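ingest -> validate -> predict -> emit
validate: passed (alphabet ok, no gaps, 434 aa)
predict: started
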Amino acid sequence: MVTFHAHFKDRKAAIDTLSYRLTLTVCKWFSKQPRLLKKIYIGALEPKVLYGHGAGGHRLKLKTFCEYLNVVQRRPLLAMTRAYRTSSTNSFQVLEGVPPLDLRAIETYATFLVLRAHKDITVYSEDFSWDEYVQMESPYLTHPAIKDGIGFDWMEPKGEGLEIFTDGSGINDKIGAAMVVLYFCKLIHSERVRLGDNSTVYQAELVGLKLAAEFVLTFTTTRRVNVFSDSRSALQSLADPTNTHPLVGEVRRFLKRARSERGVFLHWVKAHVGYHGNELDDGDAKAATDSPSVSVDLPVSSSRFKCKLKSIMIQAWQDHWDYTPNKGRFTSSIIPNVSLKTHFWGEMAELLTGHGIFPAHLFRFGIGNDDRCACGAVGDAKHYIVSCPLTMNLRARLRFNPLDLSTVVRECNLPVVGELSRRVRALLPHLQRS
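emit:
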């Protein structure tokens, strides 16, 4: 019997091996695709570490276990940033825009408990009740032999016969859906509904298709009806027989009946290209968001839950970054706010962490004669950014406030910061006084 401790040691060994192999090959393509390593980490390494979270999630309350998770994360982060290994893991995480692994584990475990185990949870004082969220249908309730989707194609409206256009819209955190019916380009019927504010535009698109199916089923005669939607994601969900979203299943059942009894065919059209019916429907969907009352109240989508959970995790990461007293403080003065979009590496990472080919840093580890720059001042990273005469011409091109180092990493400054980093590295033989 494999214990969780043995399982996790195996995961750590696997991640260390993969990270080492990536490090051996990264030099061949890193300069051309520096963000590729981050994609590999997020898509492959992180899920591999977090595999089995359902069994080990309760251990996330243990400080030692959380610290060990971040130790596992260190080697991949070092490969991604290509920074000095003396830098802190906290700095690596902020430089690369990768949250601490313990927070990602909490996020993954919370998602499992609410959406799969159907348990109420509390995450950082925020309560979540599982029955408020969409619960997927069991895939075993329908025999595989009768599982089929509702196909669609791409076809331009021709203005012939009966054409129905559906749409969903979200404005100012309000969601609406609408459906308009044209007969030889003449508007003969329209419906609009407002969904709950916790709904998504995707759900609104599906509700619009449901309105179309319900309307078609009121006909007393059978004829061909073309239904147009500009939401490819909604149409693809209906075409996928393995999709177990309850709203998708409900709309699919309505459309199957409408297709068999009234000859309904689904078509995808491009949005905002001038189709009369689509523009009418788009206006109705937007108008539906202004309705004073909610007509359709759906369970909160899992994407809303995950988005809320992610924002909680980012805030916890920010708090940890703000109140960690001894690690990454120089980096914190330059990058005070954490973000998933941040990405600094190489020489730039050395400058932003203060760990690099600087006299002060080298002297601290017993390398070099003293900690002074050739100009006589202490040769740390801040010195070369703010005051060193050897970098004066590059510093003149920076748009920043010397009293606020966070202004150094503005978008307009990044090319110059990269040049500054390379300049300091090139000056190494001349930095220390003879």
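The chain has three domains: 4-133+307-329, 144-298, 356-427.
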